[in-house]
């Protein structure tokens, strides 16, 4: 298999799915490896994306951890797509697929740049704001997703190696009273509070800019990792793409630099956000 598949978005997404299935089953990596007659280090490499499992190996793992048949077929199909050479991008077929992959990348990233011209970045959302944008979900599912969204914040606040996070947020995302003015004012003050962390930097793109910026092309997230190639995430209405091609990474890295230059500096950004919060409350 081509070396380019190692650590690619689709391979790492498959590893994240296998890890989630194992955790759900309450099994350790040694448990799974022992049942399959493998050394635990071999199985560990499948979960981390260090080694690409064959479709047959994925099917065996899924059966061992008790994955339902339909889900087992989906995971096996992911492995088949990888073996066919389509490993450098991933089109998520459902919100669950995307969230599992996104959680894995957030958990293992050393730095994240989130360009967010439409909404507040997920890692900075309050539960009430998240609940508003997930209003289309069934009640029970919505609360589960909100809890997961808020729990993702741990990558920013954990005591050991918190991720270096930069948010570049368009003014329009700060001005729209999502969930009502009280909810939005609380959200804005939460962003300001999170910006006090040494590893969190917030920039605001003012709407008075007269020139085109890469933010006009839509939101994206750039992930950097200690031992893996960078990945870019694009989210769409019914699908999501994770890119790792060198050209794609360079374009998005340059876009992030350009946006930082166009945006307010961190101090002015936080002061602006707090003024927006006051405006929300006083309207």
The whole-number mean of residue pLDDT values reads: 89
SS content category: alpha/beta
Main sheet makeup: 6 strands, mixed
CATH architecture of the largest domain: 2-Layer Sandwich
Overall number of strands: 6
- CATH fold-level assignment of the largest domain: Endonuclease, Chain A
| Integer count of domains | 2
Radius of gyration of CA atoms, rounded to a whole number: 20 Å
Question: Can you give me a brief rundown of this structure?
Answer:
It comes from Actinopolyspora mortivallis. The protein is of the alpha/beta class and 283 residues long.
What does this 3D model show about the protein?
It comes from Actinopolyspora mortivallis. This is HTH cro/C1-type domain-containing protein. InterPro entries: Cro/C1-type_HTH (IPR001387), DUF5753 (IPR043917), Lambda_DNA-bd_dom_sf (IPR010982). By secondary structure, the protein is an alpha/beta fold. It has two domains: 3-83, 434 Repressor (Amino-terminal Domain) (Orthogonal Bundle); 95-282, Endonuclease, Chain A (2-Layer Sandwich), CATH 3.30.870. The chain contains 13 helices and six strands. Helix 1 runs antiparallel to helix 5, helix 7 crosses helix 8 and helix 11 runs antiparallel to helix 13. The longest helix is centred in the first third of the chain and has 17 residues, at 9-25. The protein starts with 8 loop residues before the first helix and ends with a helix. The mean pLDDT is 89.
């Amino acid at each position: 298999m081509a070396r380019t598949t190692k650590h690619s978005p689709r391979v790492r997404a498959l590893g994240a799915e296998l890890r989630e299935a194992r955790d759900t089953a309450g099994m350790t990596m040694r448990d799974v490896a022992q049942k399959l007659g493998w050394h635990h280090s071999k199985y560990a490499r499948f979960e981390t994306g260090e080694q690409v499992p064959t479709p047959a190996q994925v099917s065996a793992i899924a059966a061992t951890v008790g994955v339902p048949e339909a889900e087992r077929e989906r995971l096996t199909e992911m492995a088949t797509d990888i073996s066919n050479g389509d490993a450098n991008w991933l089109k998520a077929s459902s919100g669950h697929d995307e969230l599992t992959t996104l959680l894995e990348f957030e958990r293992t990233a050393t730095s994240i740049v989130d360009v967010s011209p439409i909404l507040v970045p997920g890692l900075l959302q309050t539960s009430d704001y998240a609940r508003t944008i997930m209003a289309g979900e069934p009640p029970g599912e919505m609360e589960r997703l909100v809890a997961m969204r808020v729990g993702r914040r741990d990558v920013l606040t954990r005591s050991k190696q918190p991720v270096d996070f930069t948010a570049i947020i368009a003014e329009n995302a700060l001005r729209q009273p999502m969930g009502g003015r009280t909810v939005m004012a609380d959200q804005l003050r939460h962003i300001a509070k999170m910006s006090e962390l040494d590893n969190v930097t917030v920039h605001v793109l003012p709407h008075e800019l007269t020139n085109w910026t890469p933010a006009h092309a839509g939101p994206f997230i750039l992930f950097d990792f200690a031992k893996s190639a960078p990945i870019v995430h694009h989210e769409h209405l019914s699908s999501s793409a994770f890119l790792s091609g060198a050209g794609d990474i360079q374009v998005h890295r340059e876009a992030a630099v350009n946006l930082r230059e166009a945006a307010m500096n961190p101090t002015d950004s936080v002061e602006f956000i707090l003024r927006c919060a006051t405006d929300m409350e006083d309207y």
